[in-house]
Amino acid sequence: MKVSDIPGIIVERLPRYYRYFDKSVRNNVDYISSKEIGEELGIHSTQVRKDFSYYGEFGKRGVGYETTFLRGQLEKILGLNYSWEIVLIGMGNLGEALVSYDGFKRLGLNIRYVFDVAPKLAESKLGDVEVYNIDNLDSILKKNEIKIGIIATPAEAAQDIVDKLVVAGIKGIWNFAPTYLHTPEDVHVRNEDLATGLISLSYHLSN
Amino acid sequence: MKVSDIPGIIVERLPRYYRYFDKSVRNNVDYISSKEIGEELGIHSTQVRKDFSYYGEFGKRGVGYETTFLRGQLEKILGLNYSWEIVLIGMGNLGEALVSYDGFKRLGLNIRYVFDVAPKLAESKLGDVEVYNIDNLDSILKKNEIKIGIIATPAEAAQDIVDKLVVAGIKGIWNFAPTYLHTPEDVHVRNEDLATGLISLSYHLSN
DNA sequence: TAGATTGTTAATCGATTAACAATC
DNA sequence: TAGATTGTTAATCGATTAACAATC
Fold it and tell me: Would the CB atoms of A180 and B79 count as touching at under 8 Å?
């Protein structure tokens, strides 16, 4: 099975499986079945089994899935078995919240360099992360092998920054700016427009 | 056409259409075609036309879509033509960033009440939003007609809070806690687990 | 009218679920 | 063995896209 045959939407579910296996390991549960996973996560048990089957035969018939083993497999599948160095651009409230969000670090996702057009001097260090002026973007990216960038700038600034990131070799962009970004095909963009979340609730409650 | 016949995934695209029409109005563009919309947003033009067609016949053949008119239609469709009162629970970095995010207010999405288990006294007001102790949740929700709640608490606390919100009549929940929430059928949950965004990039760059 | 673009049907594509043999 | 649950095929369901008549 080629990677390209795997439905893209699966990656939305894999982190939830991973989290549930992790939780089960911590609760000293040795095996869980696709039925249990499905009930906990609101997913059909057939879907769970099919999702795993794209990557291998991980279960034991009649028993279920061994939690420690599956957690490890999912870690590898998701690329969480080694650590990522990440840059973030835009040091507003959202940028700060992301830098200090502790859910990333223990997954090996490390926001290392932060850039802003006008970093306040008092904040030139945020926790253990250094904040740089945007002018240094190119030189710092070139010195380090960084593949993932987070855009937490206003919409107007986003495309310019992205163009620079692409030139510097960034291959994955997590975009919080409420605008569509144009990138080469080999650069993966993930849009996380916050307003969409609230708007979707507004839509559903109105209809 | 019944509302239930409209594909759920459309709501992911509608806010982007809305934003593009809004931008076009501000740029004094009178008409845009489905082809232009598609190119700008990376969506097939047929998809654009089909999406609109679920709600009415909004275009002029040979011409395109009138920007002011469409912006207004999308506003109604998305429930943005009147204002929503919203509560947020969990006053960490993320909660603060959401409260001060200025993309919501001009859409009529107003975070009015904020709760925490231990609001620091110095922060009992955040901008023009009052911060309350979680014990007051029930009484304040009962006094006001609030339909949307935002969960920005740790995962462990989320389900308890949600149960309380549901009892108090909340019908839409925007969940930032990395855990699946169990709710009655008529309560709409939108999960916005931040780690998933970065993990999906990690996954795509690893494979 | 000629050119452009919509709205919609039908075809295609892709994801989900039902069913069940394999097997622990 | 009997009971349970996996892995996978086939059927179903739903979303996307191609094609084109309608019409501005």
Answer: no
